[in-house]
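Protocol step 4 of 5: obtain the predicted structure for the target chain.
Materials: sequence only (see below). No template structures provided, no constraints applied. The aim of this step is simply to have a reference model before the mutagenesis design in step 5. Sequence pasted as it appears in the construct record:
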Amino acid sequence: MSLLAGAFLAGFAVLAVPLLLHRLKERSPAETTVSSLMLMREAEEPARTRTALAHRVLLALRLALLAAITLAFAKPVVEVMSAVPIGDEVQPADLVVLDVSLSMRRSSAWSEALDVVRDLQRGEGRLVLAGDRLTAVSALIDAEPGWSRLDFAGLPQRIEAALAAWPTPPGGWRVHLVSDFQATAAPERFNALVEGIQWPVELHVVGGHGANWAVAADAIPAAAVDQSAQTGPDVARIEAVVTSFAADSRQRASPARRLSVSLHRDGEEVDRAAIAVAAGGRTPVAFDVPAMAEETVAWEVRIDADDALPADDVARVVQSARDATRVAVLAPRAEDSGMRFLLAALDASGFAKPTLLDTDSVWRPADVDCLILVDPGSLPTSTERRLTRYTDAGGGVLTIVGPRTQRARLLPFGGEVGASPFSASLQVVVRDVGHPLAAGGWGSVTVDRALILPTGYGQTILSLVPRARESPQPGSARGLPLARNSPQPGSARGLPLARDRELGGVPMLTEQRLGAGRMVTLSTALDRQWSTLVLQPAFVGFVANVVDYLAGEFARAGHAGEPLPVTSGNVQLFDAQGVRVLALGDTTGGSGNVLRVAEPGLYSVRTPGKETLLAVNVDPRESDLAPMSADLLERWRTAAQRGGSAMTRPAVQAATVEPTGTPLASVLLTLGLALLIVESAAANVGRVRPRAWIGRA
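Step 4 output (structure tokens):
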């Protein structure tokens, strides 16, 4: 027998109360000393035996009553050993992970998924919705397909993190993954699908493989448009690309599809074009629009396609006005070739003409939103002090190295660079996929020369690895390889890289916090002898992104569910109808605030003193509805069952003896009630006078 609340045994101290009371009633007769007994009258001594016996019986009843009540509160339990019958098995609880990404908005896929989930939900189970994040819901009625993307890379670890919030059932978990299993959601490295599996996983494939068409658009400023054929004023351009995603070889062999593409502004159609899109092909189309010098305009490009996924038939794009961001370029030698590429990129990005400075220029930090240092080398003390005041006040600096920095072996704000640059054919890989400066076509950039940055200089955004040994890995939000999964450059190539194993490559783009501001450093020069960066379209996008980032400007475009950095602590987001969808302080993040917009559309972003437009589109990878190959799904099923078999709970056999507890509290309370009745009756014995009652009758 065991006690569940043994502390209540202290109540036995109450037994001393009736003992003390009964002791006080037992009085000895008084004794008197006299001189002689001859004159005393003889009298009979009263009998006390019957009274003493009654008192002892009452004392025993009262002690038993208090003891029974005390033991009842202590909750005694009698353990009895019993065996489990043969054939009884502890079944695992079902965790249903339902894909709610954009591709599941197809009616066929979603209706099939709901039927599968209803069949799986039984007993002690849980339902989790999987999109850009995992979300637990209490009932299937709360589930609906979203607008974001689901990436299967690292899904086992995310599922395990969700399970950690719940107690593990006796039979463990069995995970059911219900999805259309898009091929674009599968990582290139198969191990990313099964690493970290703790429970058996069953795959449930839903959805058809219908054909789909999608449109993507971009705004080209007037400075980047060829005006040779134009007779009127400068014009900008909205360039769109319509892509056909064929489901199978029969559809890819079908004739081209004729589609109508329309351009809309403020809900009204302003232009239209007819195009033919080959099955599985891409067709570009361009619309000339007025160049906006003082106003930012939002456009929508739509296609009239009766396809499986209408959500990607609209592309939203923001045409920015001539940006009022105050950019200053500090270059000791303004005639450097890199200056020509930089100024052209700033102009093509729509920024106002920058202010050109040199080391002798006098400028006020308050008059500069973003400062670009082009191969600064060794700077005068007065310039370094002005830079320190600028960053302490929250200013952003872009530092681009070059021959002068190589000779000086110094970077602004301290730190020695490598003694000499290395020479090798290197490829750019993304280290921080969530950083806004990681966007763009960096995979096509080749770097031949770069400086080695100081150890512990800052956060690495982009790295360099040898092209011959680099192997693209999954996980990048934009299809770029991750450096952490890439082979490290080794000493066999003659590269003096002491930090390769630590950083996964040579840092190319890093960020360093300086007071309230920040500095971004590019470790290669704006020179064709150093890299192909200035010859790639990625360079113009990089210049626009880095100026906006360092100046504290909000992003102008993004994907639904994609994290967007928020440089300002005060951000408000309004949809096209003027309804606020994000209030002050609703941003979340670790080192920096992050904003996620759940639905595509045109939004207005308001920060202190500024207001800009944000175009949110669906992720283009969700438009390709082609499923994973049957061979890949079978390998996944096999690996998932094998990986989770060690965590399954075996059936309990009859020979297994388990203790079962029988509580005695109710029995003791019943006994206490009976003792109370008996004690009351015993205490009133002799006090009732029958004759008096008979006479009254």
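Step 4 remarks: Residues 49-74 form the longest helix (26 residues). The radius of gyration is 41 Å.
Proceed to step 5.
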